[in-house]
Amino acid sequence: MVVNNNSYKFVLSDTQKFLDIPIEMDWQYVGVDDGISQYENQVITEIIGGAEDFEVFRFGHKEYGQKQKTQLNYSFNFYTGGTSVTASTINNWVNTYYGSVFNFNQLVYKQKPFIKSFYKLDFYDTTDESVQTNYFTIILPITSGSLDEISGNTINTPHFSLDYLRNKEGFFIYWLRKKTFVNIDTFYMSAKFFDASLGVFVKMMTVSQSTLPNKFLFDNNLFYVKTILDYDNRTYSLYDMTTNNRIGEGNPINWYEYVNV
Amino acid sequence: MGYNDENTIVLGSLRYKSASNIDSSLKIPFIQSYKENVEYDRTIDVNLAQLYDDERQSSTIFRPTAKIALYFKNSYVGKTKYTPFANSLYYVNLNELINNVCTLNVGSVEYSGYPSNYEFDFMRTDFEVSGYTQVDELNNTHVDFVQRSATTYNWGVYLSYGYDNDYEQLMEGFDVVSQQILNWKVSDGIPFVISRNIIGQISFRCLVNHGLSVGEYVKLNFNYNGQDIFEISSLGDGFYNSDLNIFNIKDVGFTGTTFDKNVVGTFKRVLDINKPEDTISTYYVRRNKILTNESDAVLGKVAFEQTIYNKKKQFNRSSYTPNKQSIVAYKEDNLVYSLSFDKDIDINGLVDNQKRPITELFYTIIWKGYFGWTMGLGPMKKGYSFNIQPSTSIGNVPSSWWNVDNISSNTNLGILTYTKPGVSKPFSYVKPLVIGDIVDGDYCEWNVYEQKERVVSSMYHKITFNPYHFDIGNPIGLSFGKNQLGYYYAPHHMLNIGDFSDYIEEGDKKEVVGIPNWAIYSTTNNVFRWRDKYSYGYIDDKGNGVDFPFFNGVHYPYRDIIFRLIPEGTNYIDNNLVATPLIDGCE
Q1: Of A1, B190, B350, B360, which is the most buried if we count CB atoms within 10 A?
Q2: ipTM value of the model?
């Protein structure tokens, strides 16, 4: 109802005039209790929070090829040294621990510096390091790497073949089943190697520095692989940050040790 | 608030004779009143437990999980000439096989053995068997193994709920004592055979648990001088557990042949002889509606848990395998699996087969057999506990219910086929189910007066081998593929997600508020009768109710499933025992 505060004026007339003013002001308390209850729920929710769904889906690597293969391969390449990065070639990065990270005894006898080392795959919401958030991490145990022989001894290599069966650790991504809490399905994966023999993390990048025109000044995206979750099929796909082409379809995803000196 | 009086404005000269006419004005005061909330309405203690319970009771979302232990003993030895199958067998009669490989032409060697345990496991891990799941040097393979499908090659695991009832299904059972075949329609009730072993009473021997108590009544499908309802006087015949299958009525001097020994019939349970139409049970086959797709199930191996069986494996040397590749063949394994689903189940709006809110879900496990060792002679077969006559003796013959030409035992599960080059007969497997499919379930009794459903018998499926590709021979006296020995399994495994009260509420609609829509009007008492639905987390003194974890705003019901593959018999006695040493190590 619009309240009008004006006075009403009646001018002289020969007949009686009547003014019916139906002003109904029903001010009742119907629904007040419900309102209070509703407000109470609202306040309680603000104070202690409502029920959020933190259940996760299991995302597997998306099929590729006619035979619907799902195997995902990571190859980690380590810098052998011996030359400066500026003068390095691709051959200075090798896909083996021997001669680059661990010595013979550490590898063959699986000594602590070896078995305590691991790979750490971090998944961020952006490649911008000033604002990025690390949402989850996958650890690859060093002992789940492929096997090779050295002087008749079996050793692990920095190559990982992951799939639905057998070597599954690190294959699946577990992420929120619903997007109500955090609506994000694209992540940027970086890789680090924890070298237990030195107690340091070694940063990895997706190309060898030897291939870059400027070895120490390059696009930050080269530290990341784009990961997109497919909620409908509960799968994920990996993409090259430069070309935006899907990678990991049979060929290994190569990571190279980043050398900052 | 309102002001209903009328105000009349009168012209001055009309009110008083000497009065002058002047302008009039009317000021209308708008008065509003309001009320402040009293202090106790504005403050409230935050009660986390209450909030938790409120959320729990209002949630209709479920995420069922389970642990499945597969109990399987490989029981049938068969023969095959199909190379990929022969490559993966767990061979028996190895000496004979080696001799045949040495002396016969390559194509005429017939390999015999047990199919690998992988053929029945929930998760196939034989993804790199040369000549079978991977291409071998001769470019042979059977299935291009897709690892993502490892858990769906053999079994389809679904969630379902009791959706409606089928009253028309035909049934058959065999009474071992009188050697009679009993045929009836499920809505007829429960079949029996009369025996007269005790003077003064007539005994009714049932094929299944009759579900009766002393003092209740049975309505027979025949009558004695117009009387067809009789009171139960006692149960059993004195032997252990016989009270479950035998009920007795008093023999008050019945004459004629009505209650003669070996007379067969069916009965329905009645609670009140004065109101039989209101208190009689109905019998039906419950039908389940599928709630998930095959790909929604997530199965994984359970660490640190195994079944009671030992792992049994054998190394097959390349010298006698068809493709000259060595292989480790598994006869039995002992793995346990965890099960969850990618799909949440929202029961809001769903009603069960009695039109009540859903309190039961079912883990529905259906044989698929994509690798083609089984099926091939028609649809998947179904039956009930009385159709299963397990035997460990050689020469066991399945009951005629399982004959391939008995359409009453056919399931409605679809069959798909694929072919392989150079193989004349196709390979068959069961078509996966999808959301909304309806499959047969258990044989049930519903008593409307009691408002209670009872499972009379669980339903079973039967798996038989495809004799064109893996021939285990025919039971004695039966022709090729007519009625093979096989494995039984129960496809539906119930999960309680709620419960109804142990007591029954009664009320007149004019006097009682809140009568639920699943209440039934009883003509016996002229009132509505119903069982209350218990709230989540409440368990009464008789154990009724559920108390599953609740978090994420979702219920997490759980169940341990022992999934048995029940062999119908066997066709092979393993004599390959370790001989007693003539001289032991000490000597």
Answers
A1: B190
A2: 0.81
